[in-house]
Amino acid sequence: MCGIVGYIGYRKAYPILIKGLHRLEYRGYDSAGCALVTDGGNLEIYKAKGKVADLEAAADGKDVSGELGIAHTRWATHGAPSTTNAHPHVSMSGDITLVHNGIIENYVTLRTQLEKRGYVFKSQTDTEVLVQLIEFQQKLRNCSLEVAVRYALKLAIGAYAIAVIDKKNPTRLVAARKASPLAIGIGEENKEFFLASDASPIAEYTKQIVYLNDDEVAVIERGKDLHVFTLQGEEATAEVKEVDVDLSMLDKGGYPHFMLKEIFDQPQVLRDCMRGRIVNNIYSSVTGQAHEVSLDVVLSAVSNHRRELLRARRIVIVSCGTSWHAGLIGKQLIEHFCRIPVEVAYASEFRYSDPVVDKDDVVIAISQSGETADTLAAIQLAKEKGAFVYGIVNAVGSSIARNTDTGTYIHVGPEIGVASTKAFTGQVTVLTLFSLALGMMKGTVDQQEYQDVLAELVKIPEKIEVVLKQNDKIKEIAQQYVNCRNFLYLGRGYNYPVALEGALKLKEISYIHAEGYPAAEMKHGPIALIDENMPVVFLTNHHARYQKVISNLQEVISRHGNILAIIHKDDETVKKMVQNYIEVPETISCLSPLVSVIPLQILSYHVAVARGLNVDQPRNLAKSVTVE
Ligand code: G6P
Known about the structure:
Layout: E1 3-8, H1 13-23, E2 31-37, E3 43-49, H2 52-59, E4 68-74, E5 89-90, E6 96-104, H3 107-116, H4 127-141, H5 145-155, E7 158-166, E8 172-178, E9 183-186, E10 193-196, E11 208-211, E12 216-221, E13 227-230, E14 235-236, E15 240-242, H6 258-274, E16 278-284, E17 290-297, H7 300-303, H8 306-310, E18 314-319, H9 321-338, E19 342-346, H10 347-350, E20 361-367, H11 373-384, E21 388-393, H12 399-403, E22 406-409, H13 422-442, H14 447-457, H15 460-468, H16 471-479, E23 486-491, H17 496-510, E24 513-518, E25 535-539, H18 546-558, E26 562-568, H19 572-577, E27 580-584, H20 592-610
Parallel strand pairs: 18-19, 18-20, 20-21, 21-22, 23-24, 23-25, 25-26, 26-27
Antiparallel strand pairs: 1-4, 1-10, 2-3, 2-4, 5-6, 6-7, 7-8, 8-12, 9-10, 9-11, 11-15, 12-13, 13-14, 16-17
């Protein structure tokens, strides 16, 4: 969702901006644009509806010189996707230009006031208000760009990350943030600076990164130290972090789409996620020979916050989308191993629900991007109410990672495909480790079960590999469903959230309507929809309630439903009952989501590809939802 890139230095800005926009494409957008202060001192703006490639076509053959520029990918909120509404927006004098992520909530009031003072607006965006307001403040106060930016932002209500340039002063770039991420990369000896919504466009140039905090304004000048100010004008500390992004993870690595690569990445990234967190204890006998091996979870965030976690009377999980589905699995894991009641709330509902939360509650925020606006707001509310907040996040250094009291990174590498895959299995893996570690600390987990789950968890990557080998078979099965209009996904217990996630994956990228349901709940409504045209994806690979699931399966068969079952290998009973099946290796119940979600990810991928759709950037969706 909206991406910002900026450059000031000694190289040509344009190629850096374009490459950076490509790096941010995964966030989802519908138009793109860039502004350059050219060698001749002109401000050149190029924009296009559509993709970054369309922007490149629009700038083709034009003046793209200059060593200062800003660029943007826009995901429409106020005003349809169009060249006019695309950023950068320019002030009335034509001197100041700006790109913006976020929403200015009081833009109508500000716009009306500016219009009364003679300002003319060209677009329908909330963003254009900001650039006019900055110019108005600059003229009113006869001040520098950064001071005008500060005064303008004090009047703006809402969320923003902005980058602003003034063609009259081409040695500086001003940036600011509130509730929308912005990272500044510092080149060698301050000779150049890079600006972006996340570290991915910066990583190949420098590892030295400053993440702006809310209500901070950065003044970035070629050849000078970076200066950061509060909105009140006091100098703030620019904390430089060493950020290492594995660049090979940002490429498709030979796969046709990021989503397929990320599905296939899962065995390796889950090993990375567990590395150093599951350790072997080898007890030696007096003879010096190892005779007993046990496994242990080491999660520093849990052991370092013993007091806050042990006093939790309740845990509330807040998240959105796929992360919310991981939260539903987390609830079952934590309640089982830690015997603490858990609620799972959509962050967007939690923040406006006047929630009963206090200092004896622990709030767990789950987020792949670490930037989801609703989840971030839910965290802030929970903190105000005194709760201890634990983050389970993928993007290192992201806003959620920085705003939680402690947390555990899932370490699955950048996820580029809009439909989340490896982040989901990473989140479930960390939730498993978290509940085992906390359960052990509380004394609520059975020692043998603790050992059994850990011994099985380390085998999960191999079991996922077994499922991935069936990619071709799943692709064939997918062809049968390409023209279907509705799907039902059913599962019980730990596999109920997997049914929800399978349905979400299908609708996100194939635009086929799909619903997930707890298998037994089907009788209370969805059964009315079942006939021979209704594909039903049934997750039967669940030990504890296998017989119950078989009964639910019979109910669908009696209504002539077209069943695709996810089964344990060699489950001959179900094989004979259904039209299609995909085998997954057996595992223990609480870990079954980690294997049973894989065929559902692959199935949606192949259905979407067969329908000729843009798998990595589905229509209307954004990877990082930075507006509420
Ligand atoms: C968007 C993405 C989903 C993601 C959700 C929550 O809708 O398209 O894939 O699950 O946001 O995002 P988060 O980054 O907080 O996990």
